[in-house]
Amino acid sequence: MGWMHTARFLTTAAQLHHLPPINVPEIAFVGRSNAGKSTCINTLTQQKQLAFASKKPGRTQHINLFSLGRQGVTDAVLADLPGYGYAAVSRSDKVRWQQVMVNYLVSRPGLTGIVLLCDPRLGLTELDEALLEVVRPRVEEGLKFLILLTKADKLTRAEQAKVLSITRLQAGGGEVKMFSALKKQGVDEVAQLLWQWAHPMVPAAVAAQTAPGPTTDASEDSQQN
User: Hey, what domains does the chain have and what are their CATH numbers?
Assistant: First the structure.
């Protein structure tokens, strides 16, 4: 099994100060409530219900942490942050979670990378751009940053190329990749990138041998789609 497939639930917290201190790299997933964040995490980890994927966006109201590492030894943590911007969530909840998210992104000590999920048919919204401004100082200091354009299967190749070009201009130094949970597009590539984020000091030769690769199940899924 690949490194991402070792993900397991660690803890959940309604407030930032409830999160435990983490001494390994932490990678946060953020995005609008309908951007497919939970589905993306479940696809990358090859687990159907690790992250809560609801038919009603905006249901996740906690920061959920998942540990990664073989043989039960945690060498990185994924943080699933509540989705933002969904109209069905009350204004007070929006304000509260926006503040929690800002505080997390600005002050979380072990934060190593951020994955911002975006529906390419909508592009970066005002809330997405506001988040980019919040994290820009940390990105300039070396924080890894990836904009993941989900639901790529909804676009033609030409449309994908166009939105990639536009989003790269807006990324502010971050990387941009297409992703489709349905077609498994970008799954292995993103898993490899996150592994590199969490293991920056591992020599390239060792990385090639130990980084996540496609499993038999994943290969079969790709052939079926």
Answer: 3-224 (3.40.50.300)
